Amino acid sequence: MHDAIAIVGAGASGLACAEALAGRAQTVVVDRRPAPGADVRATAIRWDGRDLLAMGPSGPVEIAAAALVIATGARPLGRADLGLAGTRPAGVLPAPAACELAAHGLFRPSNPVVIGGGRWAARALAALVETGAAVTVVAPDGLLVPIEAAVAVHERLTPLAVMGDPRVERLECEGGAFDCDAIVLAHGLVPIRNVDGAVHGGERTAYAQPTLDPPSEVGSRTAGENAARRALAITGGAATIGPWWSSPNSPPSA
Questions:
Q1: What structural domains and CATH numbers belong to the chain?
Q2: What is the pTM (predicted TM-score) of this model?
Q3: Which of 38, 215, 234, 254 has its C-alpha lying 20 to 30 A from 171's C-alpha?
Q4: Phi first, then psi: what are they for 252, rounded to 5°?
Q5: What whole-number distance in Å separates Cα of residue 148 and Cα of residue 164?
Q6: Cα–Cα distance between 57 and 43 in angstroms, integer?
Q7: For residue range 161-175, what is the model confidence (pLDDT) as tens digits?
């Protein structure tokens, strides 16, 4: 097994991890986007404790590594995470998808409700206001980031159920209900773990995924540095910089 440490994610935590490991172990940073600081553009698919399989623009890539660091960020809580009862109509979207679709003109509700008061809620609110929507914000923990748009904000309400068929018609909360034609889930954060074999307690795996909302640069760097220490412990503190590329494709310049 090579002494490389593979890092999935070229965000603040992943790059902080790579920086902390510089000069101590060979690293390869994998990200699905052409992100600055990434060594390989590919989507990580599977980790078996020895090799990371990823799919890149030129085909499959296999990276031999002594440890894996998951630094893939965090997502808002989903419907099940929030414990939302009721029907399951169309028009209930997680904030990342809502922002992406709204930016391309594919999501244009008239009176949506955004659940949340943190970073993703602010992003979703801005994207929807840009389309001309009359947005209502339900912030269970209160507003965690400033909101500049003149919208209706209801703090400290607990969402309970989604109603409507076939499309969403109402969000019921403890202490109120809101008619709407879309609901955007933007409350709280949980780690994104979508690499098979490293979802929960993966073999030879460390995690760099802070879930503080809103995130902070200090928190992201600390998570990356802590993951670097755990990865070095997994490898026995090996400092040998050796070959890490086991794909038949040519490696990138490092």
A1: 5-73+192-234 (3.50.50.60), 76-185 (3.50.50.60)
A2: 0.87
A3: 215
A4: -75, 160
A5: 30
A6: 9
A7: 999 999 999 999 998
